[in-house]
Write a structure and sequence with these properties.
Elements (H helix, E strand, L loop, with lengths): L21 E5 L2 E4 L4 E4 L2 H4 L8 H13 L10 H12 L5 E5 L2 H19 L5 E5 L8 H6 L16 E4 L4 H5 L6 E6 L2 E2 L5 E2 L2 H13 L3 E5 L23 E4 L10 E5 L19 H14 L2 H25 L4 E4 L2 E5 L5 H10 L2 E2 L1 E4 L2 E4 L7 H24 L1
Bound molecules: pyridoxal-5'-phosphate.
């Protein structure tokens, strides 16, 4: 149905979208152009970690916009220096490069690894990645991804990526050669349906990469910034990677991403990396406001508790409707539906004023704001309960 106030046809049609047009957001809720309210358990795709338009973030952006937006990447600015220092102080890394999207941060990680290989490992350039992983939509990050649907697209692929299997150390070991420089992992495969690497596998991967002198790159674009109950997911496995990428939550809804590296891995030389908007004052002010909240121990504890509460409620729901497992960590969870009914549930939820995501036909993914309340979780559970009851009844009739 065309929309007279907001015609759709000037935008490239790059994905199937419902005809709903959102015009306002606040906390856990969004409103469409017709004034209908939606409870949002997608939150910009795990992006709005403080919910929609949080006052602290809106104020930081508005104050910075009136002070300095960007002096140009050829000069330092106070906000990028402060944010880099805060990230370094809160992590195991020593240096930061800011980017504008997760894919760009990962592209930077790939370049950094290749640079490391050319300087320190006789030109080694291959990076071992994993089947099922998603690292972005640039040519190199699509090539690094292990998403089946990407395989026939935009040939030829960027060479130098070899795919191992998640939680199968022997499959990684078998791919290591003199050409290998790094292993890059998405520690919980979100787009694939929320499939976690076990803490044990991550520990063994760290030991294996150290033994072979390989860089270990963590793509924490979805898992970072408190999503799994710690500020960074690597803390759950009690290991320290050499390189990490952040995106999504780091800007709380605005385009900001980061590439972090240990001193030993931080080997870019002048001219290797850059970008017009990278580390601009406006986005870094947003990042500082977000990190200020998310890095507080009480905030992280509340997010971890909310994750456990959501997990428990999803397990009860699953038992009531004869569904499968609940997997994931913190506030990145999936419910196994056992049947390919994800799209139907998402469509009915939209009608009922609830935004849900189905990354795979047989799974629902939950990625609410990290400050989601128990009342909001229960509101989602009740709405989903009613939808599952209807879908179940329809299945019994059919
Ligand atoms: C693990 C992971 N890596 C990379 C990306 C790409 O980030 P962006 O869409 O900001 O380029 C995503 C986005 O969904 C992601 O989940």
């Amino acid at each position: 149905m065309p929309n007279a106030t907001h015609p759709f046809d000037a935008l490239m049609d790059i994905t199937a979208r419902p005809k709903t047009v959102f015009v306002r957001g606040e906390g856990a809720y969004l409103w469409d152009a017709a004034g209908k309210r939606y409870l949002d358990f997608i939150q910009g795709w795990a992006v709005n970690c403080l919910g929609h338009s949080p006052p602290a973030l809106a104020e930081a952006i508005s104050a910075q916009a009136k002070t300095l937006i960007t002096p140009s990447p050829a000069y330092y600015n106070d906000m990028s220096l402060k944010l880099a220092k805060a990230l370094v102080d809160n992590s195991c890394f020593d240096q930061v490069f800011f980017a504008n999207s997760g894919a760009e941060a990962n592209e930077g990680a790939i370049k950094l690894a290749r640079k490391y290989g050319s300087l320190r490992k006789n030109g080694a350039f291959e990076i071992i990645t994993f089947e099922g992983a998603f690292h972005g939509r640039t040519l190199a990050t699509m090539s690094a991804s292990g998403k089946k649907a990407f395989e026939p697209l935009f040939e030829p692929k960027v060479p130098g990526f070899r795919k191992a299997r998640l939680n199968d150390l022997a499959s990684v070991e078998a791919l290591i050669s003199d050409n290998t420089v790094a292993v890059m992992i998405e520690p919980i495969q979100g787009e694939a349906g929320v499939w976690p690497a076990t803490d044990q596998f991550l520990k063994e991967l760290r030991a294996l990469t150290q033994q072979h002198g390989l860089l270990l790159i963590f793509d924490e674009i979805q898992t970072g910034m408190g999503r799994t109950g710690k500020l960074f997911h690597y803390e759950n496995a009690e290991i320290e990677p050499d390189v990490m990428t952040l995106g999504k939550g780091i800007g709380g809804g605005v385009p900001l991403a980061a590439l972090l590296a240990s001193e030993a891995a931080s080997c870019f030389e002048h001219g290797d990396q850059g970008g017009t908007f990278n580390g601009n004052s406006l986005m870094c002010a947003a990042g500082l406001a977000v990190l200020g909240d998310v890095s507080k121990p009480a905030f992280l504890k509340a997010a971890a508790d909310a994750g456990l509460f959501l997990e428990g409620e999803l397990q009860k729901l699953s038992a009531r409707h004869g569904l499968g497992e609940v997997r994931g960590r913190g506030l990145l969870l999936a419910l196994d539906l056992k049947l390919p009914i994800g799209a139907a549930i998402v469509a009915q939820a939209l009608d009922a004023g609830l935004l849900l995501n189905s990354p795979q036909p047989d799974a629902l993914r939950f990625m609410p704001a990290l400050n989601v309340s128990r009342e909001e979780i229960l509101e989602m559970i009740h709405a989903l309960d009613a939808i599952l009851a209807k879908v179940g009844a329809a299945r019994r009739v059919a």
